[in-house]
Design goal:
The complex is a heterodimer of chains A (262) and B (310). By secondary structure, chain A is an alpha/beta fold. Chain A has a single domain, classed as 3-Layer(aba) Sandwich (Rossmann fold). Chain A is 35% helix and 23% strand. Chain A is built from eleven helices and ten strands. In chain A, helix 7 links the parallel strand 7 and strand 8. The longest helix of chain A has 16 residues. The termini of chain A are far apart. Chain B has 310 residues and is mainly alpha-helical. Chain B has one domain: ABC transporter involved in vitamin B12 uptake, BtuC (Orthogonal Bundle). Helix content of chain B is 76%, strand content 0%. The longest helix of chain B has 30 residues. The chains are: A alpha/beta (262), B mainly alpha (310).
């Protein structure tokens, strides 16, 4: 299956250059049925955007395809108007916690240092400043004192915070997070959201796949609603509406979740 | 045992055994952590059809054509495993199992049908190698290590294996960070721009080179054991990747030395007349080390499992 991506118009080009991450006509398929179908998204700089949608709606897949972790069937991805590969230094990523084997023989500090590998190169020497940066990132997520811990000894929430610390060590302008609040304790959720809000207040961009509709208005500025195809995109006040969610979730939208809409 | 006789008869095979063991153990660490440990097993089996085809094409039993044939066969095997895994949607372990048994069986049939009875090429040789026969007749004691003329008489397997080990070590050192990162977190590695697919393929190719070189010198039984036993034992001794690789090297060296000595002298000590196969004993010792690590190793309990319940 080959889908044609239309040429970019001048009007759209201006939008793309302002956007830290934008996709056009993104289609991904794991088998017969597309997981993400012809999605356009233009994430706005300096704000926090939630990607929401029901289970299996292609939220994570869309993020992974935008980053090149899975190969899309078609579509174009730009970061600040340029091809993504040229902008990798400015992008940090927090994968789903369950995507790695936590039995891997390594310490917490080593995982955070991985955020600096691109900067260090193949054989660049690890200096005191790199260690200090890594320790400072652990401090920001409230994990100082865990630096020498084997990663398998951490709780789920602590693992998530270590992943966030690794992304902080990347010192990026765009932070992409895949379900950062899934299966974490309340203390971790508070720690993570305050770190993310601090990033936003520094002018950085945060995009997170999010599953808890009740916290969307509190945590995020903008929302991207997806159910394989795009349903809505915009400020929470405009796009996070009963109609849009009904369209995305259909009968799966529980009454309790609707309560969040007020 | 430490005099001239040792230099002539035991030093070269011991060194070859050590180099082969370490060259396989180092990539084995990463294969183990990637749940691809079986690939060493697969490669060491598929080299049989490779060397048989190389013999049929060239008509001689020579190291280089055979190593090329073995290398080509392992590439074919890797491609087949990937094809079966992707097209058939079959789990990697099963795909490897199917490919290497089929190719090994094909090699046995080919060997049987072809006229190889006159030359030194048989299944037994493929399995156990001929470590004991790799002697250094030009040596006149330790001083020969400084004598260029005598050094030229070294069994060619020794410099070849030393070169292979150096190659494996340098590559592992240079690509340590990409290897570590892509083994731990492939998705994240990809977002930092690392060519994750190429790194994974590179690891398998390096493992195949180590396996083929070691197979030629010491037979496939050591190759199979060294890809898995030292790294698996090492994992239970430490919770750090750097330390794990160091432990695996130590265990590989220990297996090679102990195995060689036990094979040569163990039966005599027990009152039997004959020595046993050094390759078989080296593999056995590595298995015993793994068993000991599994019982007494400080990190044999998987800490992650406990944390989940906490």
């Amino acid at each position: 299956m080959e889908l044609v991506t239309p040429e970019t118009g001048t009007e759209d080009r201006a939008l793309l250059e302002a956007s830290p991450l934008a996709v056009r006509g993104l289609t991904v398929s794991y088998g017969e049925k597309p997981a993400v179908f012809s999605v356009d998204a233009t994430f706005q700089p300096g704000v926090m955007t939630a990607i929401v949608g029901p289970n299996g709606a292609g939220k994570s897949t869309m993020l992974k395809a935008a980053l090149g972790i899975v190969t899309p069937l078609s579509g174009r991805v730009t970061a600040w108007g340029a091809p993504l590969d040229k902008m990798r230094d400015r992008i940090a990523y927090v994968p789903q916690r369950a995507s790695v084997d936590w039995d891997f023989p390594t310490r917490v500090l080593d995982v955070v240092m991985m955020g600096q590998y691109r900067q260090l190169g193949l054989l660049g020497r690890v200096r005191t400043e790199h260690m200090r940066t890594a320790l400072h990132c652990l401090e920001r997520v409230g994990m100082d004192g865990f630096a020498d811990r084997q990663i398998g000894q951490l709780s789920g929430g602590q693992q998530q915070r270590v992943f966030l610390a690794r992304a902080l060590a990347q010192d990026a302008d765009l932070y992409l997070l895949d379900e950062p609040f899934a299966g974490v304790d309340a203390a971790t959720e508070t720690a993570i959201i305050s770190v993310l809000k601090a990033l936003r207040d520094q002018g950085r961009t945060v995009v997170a796949v999010h599953h808890d509709l009740s916290t969307v208005p509190d945590y995020f500025d903008r929302v991207f609603v997806i159910n394989t195809s795009k349903v809505a995109e915009g400020p929470v006040s405009e796009a996070f509406t009963r109609t849009n969610l009904q369209e995305a979730y259909g009968g799966r939208l529980a009454a309790a979740q609707m309560g969040a809409l007020g | 045992m430490m005099g001239e006789e040792f230099v002539v008869l035991s030093l070269p095979p011991m060194l070859i055994g050590i180099f082969a063991a370490v060259a396989c153990a180092i990539p084995g660490n990463f294969l183990l952590l990637r749940r691809q440990a079986l690939i060493g097993d697969a490669i060491s089996h598929v080299v049989l059809p490779g060397i048989v085809v190389a013999f049929l094409l060239t008509g001689v039993v020579a190291a280089w054509p055979m190593m090329l044939g073995a290398g080509a066969a392992s590439l074919v095997a890797v491609a087949l495993i990937e094809a079966i895994r992707r097209l058939g949607g079959i789990e990697p372990g099963a795909a490897m199992g199917v490919v290497f048994t089929a190719m090994f069986a094909g090699g046995v049939l080919l060997l049987e049908q072809s006229d190889t009875s006159s030359v030194h090429l048989d299944v037994e040789h493929a399995l156990y190698g001929n470590l004991e026969s790799l002697i250094w007749l030009d040596a006149r004691g330790w001083g020969s290590l400084l004598d260029m003329a005598a050094l030229r008489g070294l069994p060619p397997e020794l410099p070849r294996m030393a070169l292979t080990l150096a190659f494996v070590t340098v590559l592992t050192w240079v690509f340590w960070r990409p290897l570590k990162l892509s083994t731990f977190d492939e998705g994240f590695a990809r977002t930092t721009g690392l060519p994750v697919g190429a790194i994974g393929l590179g690891l398998v190719v390096v493992a195949a080179i180590a396996a083929v070189a070691a197979f030629d010198a010491v037979g496939s039984i050591i190759v199979i054991a060294m890809f898995i036993c030292p790294p698996a034992a090492a994992r239970m001794m430490t919770n750090g990747l750097e330390a794990q690789v160091a432990w695996s090297v130590l265990f590989a060296v220990l297996s090679a030395i102990l195995g060689y000595v036990l094979a040569g002298y163990g039966p005599l000590w027990l009152g039997f007349d004959d020595a046993v196969s050094a390759a078989g004993m080296i593999a056995t010792v590595s298995g015993v080390i793994l068993a000991l690590a599994a019982v007494f190793g400080p990190y044999r309990h998987r800490s992650g499992a406990r944390a989940e319940h906490a």
